[in-house]
Write a structure and sequence with these properties.
CATH topology of the largest domain: Rossmann fold
Radius of gyration: 19 Å
Strand order of the largest sheet: 7-6-5-8-9
CATH class of the largest domain: Alpha Beta
Structural class: alpha/beta
Number of strands: 9
Number of domains: 2
Order of helices and strands: HEHEHEHEHEHEEHEHHEHH
Distance between the termini: 13 Å
Strand content: 5-15%
CATH superfamily of the largest domain: Aspartate/ornithine carbamoyltransferase
């Protein structure tokens, strides 16, 4: 059996193309499993996984938990809001206390960039980064690429535009790494204030006109504006943002081709996309959610197979 080149999933930038292809092949298998009447496999009966969420999350946490349970792993859920972290306990102490309960893998979301890398150097467990600040969100990028591959046949040579708050988005950065590695062309589009200065160093181009970006692309991945990460105002008003960067049915119908619409969620309906776009046949948003479980099953399974030996 082929195996991953890494012992942790800390970010897309630590993976290679063979890793991504292996994750996708494994996800294909698990996608078939979760569409069966009995949706569980006994693959990880002897593995214990702790989900540590130091930031609020609904979809990612539920998706990981479902993936773990579908693989028959034992699951511990930890929410920082109701924990000793509030009393001043350090990250390493918190995790070591959990690991002393014989936990094999930690799935962690943390507000600080690099928290997963830091942890991987100090604890004896496989770490899966479920989002670290505005840095990376590797499983989201994997499920996004997987969903593009499913809809369009392959990712290579496809034109993908990521629209919205690029500056604060871990989804954008992980997607750029994953898409470029698979040979896609990537543009980013949004207000200049929400596009990082270094972004062109990553081999992507910038387009500030939404209509031009949509005319160019095969896929538009719409990101929400992350107000919770903003200490200052980056644009005059939500209404003005929507007028310039919101995707409506009218805009899509004015294009000379049909493009695929994606969104990592949660959607601010009426801001970055209207409801009739989100619910249309061009949108693969619910496919992304379903694929998220299969891709996370694949990641967990492949990392766990390296622990067992």
């Amino acid at each position: 059996m082929s195996e991953l080149s890494v012992n942790h999933l800390l970010g897309i930038k630590y993976l290679n193309l063979d890793d991504i292809n292996l994750i996708f092949e494994t996800a294909d298998h698990f996608k078939e499993v979760i569409n069966r009447p009995i949706k569980k496999v006994p693959s990880l009966r002897d593995i214990t996984i702790a989900n540590l969420f130091f930031e609020n999350s609904t979809r990612t946490r539920l998706s990981f938990e479902l993936a773990e349970k579908r693989l028959s792993a034992d699951v511990i859920n930890f929410s920082a809001a109701s924990s000793s972290v509030k009393k001043g306990e350090t990250l390493i102490d918190t995790v070591n206390n959990i690991l002393s309960m014989k936990v094999d893998m930690v799935v962690m979301r943390h507000p600080n960039p690099g928290a997963g890398v830091f942890l991987s150097k100090h604890v004896e467990a496989s770490i899966v980064n479920a989002g670290d600040g505005a840095h990376e969100h590797p499983t989201q990028a994997l499920l996004d690429s997987y969903s593009i591959r499913e809809r369009l046949g392959e990712v290579q040579d496809k034109k993908i535009v990521i629209v919205g708050d690029i500056l604060h988005s871990r989804v954008a950065l992980s997607n750029i790494f994953a898409l470029k590695m698979q040979g896609a062309e990537v543009k980013v589009c949004g207000p200049k204030t929400l596009i990082p200065k270094y972004i062109q160093d990553l081999g992507v181009t910038v387009e500030t006109n939404l209509k031009k970006a949509l005319e160019w692309c095969d896929v538009a991945n719409m990101l929400r504006v992350q107000n919770e990460r903003m200490e200052i105002s980056y644009f005059p008003s939500t209404r003005e943002y929507t007028q310039q960067f919101g995707v409506t049915k009218k805009i899509l119908e004015s294009l000379d081709k049909e493009i695929v619409i994606m969104h990592p969620g949660p959607i601010n309906r009426g801001v970055e996309i209207t409801s009739d776009v989100a619910d249309s046949s061009q949108a693969i948003i619910l496919d992304q959610v379903q694929n998220g479980v299969a891709v996370r099953m694949a990641v967990i399974y492949l990392l766990a197979s390296k622990i067992k030996r």
